[in-house]
Design brief:
This is Transcriptional regulator, HxlR family. Residues 90-184 form the HTH hxlR-type domain. It is built from eleven helices and five strands; from the N terminus they run ααααββαααβααββαα. It is of the alpha+beta class and 184 residues long. It has two domains: 1-90, Arc Repressor Mutant, subunit A; 92-184, Orthogonal Bundle (Arc Repressor Mutant, subunit A), CATH 1.10.10.10. The strands form two sheets. The chain has a three-stranded antiparallel sheet with strand order 3-5-4. It has a two-stranded antiparallel sheet with strand order 1-2. It is elongated, with a radius of gyration of 17 Å.
């Protein structure tokens, strides 16, 4: 999986919980997935349609009602669901709201090694300065990211590192998402 697909998956709040639930064996029906994820119907429907547009899910032929189809994982969806399951398994209930934010996971993936702000921007070309700043700030408040200002550089520049739960998530996602970019 590449970073652009990962960014697209995490763009919808309930995409990862849906994938993780399907990986755990929850049936691909709307009612079962709604119960498992705790999403609202509208947000769930948008995330489900988003996953189908990304070709991570497909309709299960011959199953489900035409208005509420049953879905199943595609081969690339199975890879994404496995990753989603690992991430969801690390997080406590109070951490899942931050995981559902659009840029949290891509930023943590990019922080598999300490980076300056501009280096993060280059890793995630679609992110705006404001979105990156807000994401780093919220993760710093949760103590997932550590910000260290280096006085030796002129002007002083902050260096960001993933720590605690952020580090564990980064260690899981970076090898699977950045393998294509950092490879030979």
């Amino acid at each position: 999986m590449d970073i652009n697909l990962f960014v697209n998956i995490t763009a919808k709040a309930w995409a990862l919980p849906i994938l993780a639930s399907l990986h755990e064996g929850v049936p691909g029906r709307q009612a079962a997935l709604l119960t498992a994820t705790g999403a609202t119907r509208t947000a769930f429907s948008q995330s489900l349609n988003h996953l189908m547009a990304l070709r991570l899910l497909e309709r299960n032929p011959g199953h489900g009602h035409p208005l509420r189809p049953e879905c199943r994982l595609t081969p690339i969806g199975q890879e994404a669901a496995s990753l989603a399951h690992e991430i969801q398994g690390l997080a406590q209930d109070e951490d899942r709201d931050l995981l559902r934010r659009a840029w949290t996971l891509p930023v943590l993936t990019s922080l598999h090694q300490p980076r300056f702000f501009n280096d993060l921007r280059r890793t995630l070309p679609q992110i705006t300065d404001r979105a990156l700043s807000k994401s780093l700030q919220s993760m710093e408040e949760r103590q997932w990211v550590f910000r260290q200002v280096l006085p030796s550089t002129r002007p002083p520049r902050p260096l960001y590192s993933s720590i605690n739960l952020g580090k564990r998530i980064s260690e899981i996602t970076a090898p699977q998402v950045l393998a294509l970019q950092d490879g030979p």
